[in-house]
TrEMBL record:
Domain of life assignment: Bacteria
Residue intervals of the FAD/NAD(P)-binding domain: 6-333
GO MF terms held by the record: oxidoreductase activity
Organism (species): Rhodococcus parequi
Domain Pyridine nucleotide-disulphide oxidoreductase dimerisation: 368-473
Pfam families: Pyr_redox_2, Pyr_redox_dim
Entry keyword annotation includes Repeat: no
EC number: 1.-.-.-
Name by which UniProt lists this protein: NAD(P)/FAD-dependent oxidoreductase
Length: 485
């Protein structure tokens, strides 16, 4: 069978794959193929980041309006216009049409190839009956898929996953959400506001958002409960039964009621709902990818070095970026890795040395920023206090309520909290967390401080504008203990 040759072959057309291909050929005559079996643009564009934020933004706007004199009187009697919110969501996802993404790929010289790819040899990828060969590199950017635990009756009940929640077409009146992480908390937020009357979170652990500072999960839980969401901590799902199951399509209620058997929290062991959303983690999409053909396990995350080169494969030709390598399951981190990876591929193709930090992915080692768009928002970067201490870092921790003029002006019921984790030896910030309305816009300043290792003495001269929520930076610096430093 005749083969087609490209300089770079990227498997997976999400943001990480797109960026890896674009950076690898930028400013050159190199060629790239982007292989995608679903939609070019990937999970983020159609089933995750974009639709979820399009659904959450109206919730935030309405919440602010309800606590703003002169506005609240006009909106208090009304909720969201669900039809309009969903229509706006569909605009951002282009109604699941990826033609604009394909046009972009064509415009930068990337060939889009439709189909499922499998590695069949060194620098060789097979897509259907087509054999592709890479002169320089093959990049894995296949991401992850939602995990559904193999519990009695659960998979047979056709529960919702994150794709159903973000592409909701029919809002269930009674909803159970299995999980207490980012997807669970965000989905519970928008589905409740869109009309789910009874929302129950089944959380195996003792807190929401367990990877953040404890106060962040506590504040999100408090607000969810205030809005009528039932949170059951220590609750372990045992089984599900749905006699009248029906494959009605993504985002629609999948048949009749679901009866869940739940243990561990001392509440009613039987819970009946109209739909169950499983938000219990992600699984790397590596099954069937042919990794065994190059001596790697045929499932699980793919381990890479800081050049994003896959370890355990000779020749520096196989790379992995984004969720599939398990380093930081966030779109912006996948795109960051892709930029580094593309630059590495280009340098190696041109025989240039990999000198300089541009060729090393370092930000996903303890410098990762993330925003959880719940009510209130949670924005964090770097290490939590417990993570820093576990790593042996001698830290000071300062935490203050966000009680500044800018916050008070933004809405009447503003409440928030901020904290810094400070390395005593270097007097630099290694972690920061902000909770409150609009704090997503605070985290990049913290990210610059963490990545740049900016001394706190220097931060005294980074004057926050008045009146903004950023004034909290001054309050944090003022709260820094001085004894013993």
């Amino acid at each position: 069978m005749a083969s087609e040759e490209f300089d770079v072959i990227v498997i997976g057309g999400g943001p990480a794959g797109e960026n890896a291909a674009a950076y690898a050929i930028a400013g050159s005559n190199r060629t790239a193929a982007l292989v995608e079996h679903q939609l070019v643009g990937g999970e983020c564009s159609y089933w995750a980041c974009m639709p979820s934020k399009a659904l959450l933004r109206p919730v935030e706007v309405l919440g602010t309006a309800r606590h703003m004199p002169g506005v609240e009187e006009k909106v208090n009697a009304y909720g969201l216009d669900t039809e309009a919110v969903l229509a706006r969501r569909d605009e951002f996802t282009h109604n699941l049409d990826d033609s604009s993404q394909v046009l972009w790929a064509d415009s930068v010289g990337i060939d889009v190839i439709r189909g499922s790819a499998r590695i069949t040899g060194v620098r060789e990828v097979t897509v259907g009956e087509r054999v592709l060969r890479a002169r320089h590199a093959v990049v894995l950017a296949t991401g992850t898929t939602a995990s559904v635990p193999d519990l009695p009756g659960l998979r047979a009940a056709l529960p919702w996953t994150s794709r159903d929640a973000t592409n909701v077409r029919e809002v269930p009146k009674r909803l159970a959400v299995v999980g207490g992480g980012v997807v669970a908390c965000e989905a519970a937020t928008w589905l409740h506001e869109l009309g789910a009357d009874e929302v129950t979170l089944l959380v195996r652990g003792s807190a929401l958002l367990e990877r953040t500072e404890p106060f962040a999960g506590e504040m999100v839980a408090e607000k969810l409960r205030k809005h009528g969401v039932n949170i059951r901590f220590g609750a372990s799902l045992q089984s599900a039964a749905r006699p009248d199951v029906a494959d009605t399509g993504v985002g629609r209620v999948h048949g009749g009621p679901v009866t869940l058997s739940v243990s561990g929290d001392g509440s009613d062991p039987e819970l009946t709902v109209d739909e169950v959303l499983v938000a219990a983690g992600r699984t790397p999409a590596t099954a069937g990818l042919g990794l065994d053909q190059v001596g790697l396990p045929d499932h699980g995350y793919v381990t890479v070095d800081d050049h994003l080169t896959v370890t355990g494969v000779d020749g520096d030709w196989l790379y992995a970026v984004g969720d599939v390598n398990g380093r930081a399951l966030l779109t912006h981190m996948g795109k960051y890795q892709a930029r580094v990876c593309g630059d590495v591929i280009a340098a190696r193709a041109e025989g240039r040395p990999l000198d300089g930090s541009r060729f090393v992915a370092s930000a996903d080692h303890g410098q990762v920023p993330q925003v959880v768009f719940t009510t209130p928002e949670v924005a964090a970067v770097g290490l939590t206090e417990s993570q820093a201490r576990a790593d042996g870092v001698d830290v000071d921790v300062v935490a203050v309520d966000i009680d500044v003029a800018g916050a008070a002006l933004s809405r009447d019921d503003y409440s928030g909290r901020a904290s810094l984790v400070i390395d005593r030896a270097s007097d630099t910030i290694v972690g920061a967390t902000f909770v409150g309305s609009g704090v997503a816009e605070l985290v990049h300043a913290a990210t610059v401080a963490v990545v740049g290792k900016v001394p706190l003495e220097s931060l005294w001269h980074a004057v926050p504008s008045y009146p903004t929520v950023s004034e909290v930076w001054l309050r944090l610096l003022e709260a820094r203990p001085t004894a013993g430093r």
